[in-house]
Design goal:
two-stranded antiparallel sheet; alpha+beta; about 250 residues
């Protein structure tokens, strides 16, 4: 499936159902959906690649904790100052995306080692609840990753990084994470425990299908959010115009 899929939904005076239908047409029936019951959105999935279909996260990719920011932070009077954008807990969205408006400015006394900077196809996993996994595309490269996250660099050709991020946000994995969490107020998990999480490895074609549907879902969510914002702005403008013309 091409990464250069274009979306032509620009008219926000349409219903959410129409938006969904338009988006689903983009995949040209490449995704087979099981219509046998009410769970129509479930895929028929078969896996012949691995004996049992499961593999530990530590076997799928190299895992490293992010940078302890205080060790590199610039202090007034130091000779060098290097400015970066840094990922924050607040910038992580539950759907696995990053809100770039909530990235932090980070000033370092020395250049940050590249292993602590995001790179295309990295998967970041938050160590505290809700343990959101983030897929890094080219547009998000070069961000500083703090120690509240683990960086996973997939090394197996049988696993697509974007699929891995999606799986890590699935209810099945969230259930596994529960057994490792500790702490009374802010429950956390360490890198070693995270590496024990078992991932169901599907065929590459099925991984691509899931990635495609997830991209469409995120796009549809974005469009609906923009539609709602436009409608609210229109509503407030009309009401302000009406009420603003009334003399008290």
């Amino acid at each position: 499936m091409s990464e250069n899929t274009t979306y032509k939904v620009v008219n926000f005076n349409i219903s959410s159902i129409e938006i969904i239908l338009i988006l689903f047409k983009q995949i040209n029936n490449k995704i087979s959906i099981d219509n046998s019951d009410s769970s129509w959105y479930l895929f028929k999935i078969k896996n012949n690649k691995f004996e049992d279909g499961f593999m530990k996260l530590s076997k799928i990719g190299d895992m490293k904790m992010g940078l302890i920011l205080s060790r590199k932070v610039y202090e007034k009077g130091q000779d060098e100052k290097h400015i970066y954008k840094a990922i924050t807990l607040a910038s992580t969205v539950s759907d696995g995306t990053i809100d770039v408006s909530k990235l932090d400015n980070y000033s370092a006394a020395k250049p940050v080692n590249e292993r602590y900077l995001t790179d295309k196809n990295d998967v970041l996993i938050r160590l505290s609840e809700p343990n959101t996994a983030l897929f890094i595309d080219k547009s998000l490269s070069g961000l500083v990753v703090p120690s509240q996250f683990v960086i996973v660099k997939v090394r197996l050709n049988e696993v697509l990084p974007e699929f891995l991020a999606w799986v890590m946000n699935s209810p099945q994995v969230k259930k596994q994470l529960e057994q490792y969490k500790n702490g009374s107020s802010l429950k956390t998990i360490n890198t070693g425990e995270l590496g024990e999480i078992k991932i169901n490895i599907l065929s590459l074609s099925e991984q691509e299908k899931i990635i495609g549907i997830n991209r469409l879902y995120l796009r549809e969510t974005e469009l609906l959010s923009r539609y709602k914002e436009n409608r609210e702005s229109l509503y407030k403008g009309v009401m302000n115009k009406i009420y603003g013309g009334i003399k008290l």
